[in-house]
Structure formats: C-alpha cells, structure tokens
Amino acid sequence: MIRRATVNDIPDLDRLLYQVAEVHHQGRPDLFKPDAKKYTDEELEAIIADDERPIFVYVDETANDGDGTVRGTGVTGYAFCVFQRHSGSHALTDITTLYIDDLCVDETARGGHIGSKLYRHVLDFAREHGCYNVTLNVWSCNPSALAFYEHCGLKPQKIGMETIL
After folding, report:
1. What interhelical angle do 41-49 and 10-27 show, nearest 10?
2. Other CB atoms closer than 10 Å to residue 139's CB: what's the count?
3. What is the enclosing helix (H) or strand (E) of 102?
4. Phi, psi (5° rounding) for residue 18?
5. Residues with Cβ < 8 Å from 45, sequence gap 6 or more?
6. Side-chain-side CA neighbours of residue 44 (13 Å)
7. Would you state the pLDDT for residue 36?
8. Comparing C-alpha atoms, which of 61, 151, 134 is closest to residue 97?
9. Nearest by Cα to 1 from 73, 70, 59
10. Would you state the pLDDT for residue 68?
11. What would the DSSP string read from start to end of 9-78?
12. Residue 66 to residue 69: CA distance in whole angstroms
C-alpha cells in the first residue's frame, strides 16, 4: 500500500533517511557527514503538513525484523516530492514539475519492486496534478540508484560537474 506519510511514520522515515545518508557518505565522505540524516524530526513534521512537498510511503504490512515481529508501521520505502514552478521566469516556460527530492527502499527490502511501485505512484500523482514532468537528481557515487532510474525510463536532463580543489 502506498499513502501519504503521517507524523506517526517519522521513526521509519528516520531509519530510511539514515540509510540514504550512509550510502552518500560511503560514496562521498568529503561531502556527506557520517551518522547524519537530511531532516530533523521537526522539519519532517513541517514537510508532512505541506501539500507542496508530499511524502509517499510504501507500507508493507508483513514487514518484520527477521524474527516475526512486525516493525513499526511497516514503512519499507518512501518518496519525498516537491512541486516546482517557474511562473514569471524570463527564460523558463511556465510548467509544473514534480521533483523527487529523495526515494529510498529499505536495504532489507530491495529487489521486491517497491521502488518501482513508488516511482509509478509518483508519476500517477504528478499526472493527476497537471505536472509536465517528474525530475530528480542522482549522485554518480550511487551507481545502483542510477541503474534503477535508467531502468524506470528516466533520461539525463542536465549534468552537474565539479573540480575538487
């Protein structure tokens, strides 16, 4: 089941946010701190309440900790999204984009098509809300995420480049 996140999901969101942060820290320890997460619980509460920043969670009612004990709400994946608009821009067209700020599947549940289900849900949501496109960023230090998004049919829109000094 996929639904909007609630404040009751924050412990599970925290667990998954730490997993994402660790992947990024392992790939780019020069940029990402260890044992960190992207949002505080207070920030998560504000995001959950903001219709311009929907968070979708995949709830697996059979999720457990390996010993048969059901784990929390059974949230095994999420997609953080943000509506982006460029109305009034002199250079950009006036379209609505749904940006996927973060998509994560619990490391113990990967391979079960949860990420694909979340992504398709986001696409349907974006269509229902009149979006022109869905965009996201992926770090080059995360080749499995890049392969997943390519498998979903995403194509590069722009490429960020750097020189480390």
Report:
1. 110
2. 15
3. strand 96-105
4. -65, -40
5. 7, 10
6. 23
7. 95
8. 134
9. 59
10. 53
11. GHHHHHHHHHHHHHHHHHH-TTTS-TT--SS-HHHHHHHHH-TTS-EEEEE-TT-B-SSS-B-TT-EEEE
12. 7
Does the pLDDT value for residue 73 go beyond 80?
Answer: no
Tokens representing residue 9 in the block: 């999901």
Question: Cβ–Cβ contacts within 10 Å for residue 92, how many?
Answer: 10
SS3 (DSSP) at 147: helix
Question: For 9-65, how does the pLDDT look when each residue is reduced to its tens digit (9 = 90+)?
Answer: 999 999 999 999 999 999 999 999 999 999 999 999 999 999 999 999 999 876 555
Residue the block writes with tokens 């997943």: 148
Name the nearest CA neighbour of 16 among 79, 82, 83: 79
102-119 pLDDT per residue, tens: 999 999 999 999 999 999
